[in-house]
Amino acid sequence: MTSTMLTPIDQQDWINAFDPKKRFFQGRSYLFAKRAMDLVLVLLSAPFWIPLLGVLAVLIRVTSPGAPALFTQYRTGKGGKRFRMYKFRSMVPNAEALKEKYAHLNELQWPDFKITNDPRVTRVGRILRKTSLDELPQLINVLKGEMSLVGPRPTSFGAETYKLWHTERLDVKPGLTGLWQIVGRAQLEFDDRLRLDIAYIERAGLLFDIVILFRTVAAVFQQRGAH
User: Quick one: how far is CA 145 from the chain centroid?
Assistant: First the structure.
């Protein structure tokens, strides 16, 4: 998901407004409250998103046969631990094999990989990405405790590729959405995203999480969801 179009100065002012010294919950109490909020929100919304999972899975299989609608990809989570993250398939079945073919079109610094109008993305996949519905299965990761609703996005590459200062993002669970998704841009380089991740970690609190969730929903409805 992409930016809510704040200027860099507005972004910094907005982020700094969340003073970590004014958080109601601190330390373990915050982690407990955050986990409780994740479970309550995901479980209460289950009657809506579980049927939607089924509908989207059928649509993907019908329009793009040859591979499962749901796929798992190893991502790096808290403490550098690798876990299987769930996503809807938005690309052709042989997308990984084609990655090397289109490597020259990569717009980000390796190991990040992004191509505007990626030719591997299916017609339905473009809609899923535009609305961020391809990320919906990650609610299962949230239920399993591997992810939170809000936190740094988990990377596909392992912690061994991180620089030392990057590893601060591994102190918390990765999230379904995070700070850089709503105030950054989809084309931000990894170091720039890391700075926003660290800014979130230093200010993390329930109010901050709730505001990020609301801004994420607003970004999706404005059809700014992109990867």
Answer: 15
